[in-house]
Amino acid sequence: MTKKKLSIPLENLVSTEKNMYELTNAAIHRARQISMTGAEELEAAGGKVVSKAITEIVTEEVQYNIKQD
Asked: What is the pTM of this model?
C-alpha cells in the first residue's frame, strides 16, 4: 500500500511550539488573501486554499505578527 502525500505538513504542525490559536488565526487571514488575489497560488495548491495557507504559515514561507492594542 502506498502512502498518500498530505498537502499539509503535519510533522511541522504537530512539532511546533507556537500558539495554535495564533497559527489558526494567521492561516485564516492568509487563506482569505489567497482567495482574493491568487490564481497562480491556487493552481499551485490544486485549488486547496486552506491547505496552502496552513502550509505557508507552518513552514514559515509566510511570516505573520500579532497586532497589540
From this structure: 0.71
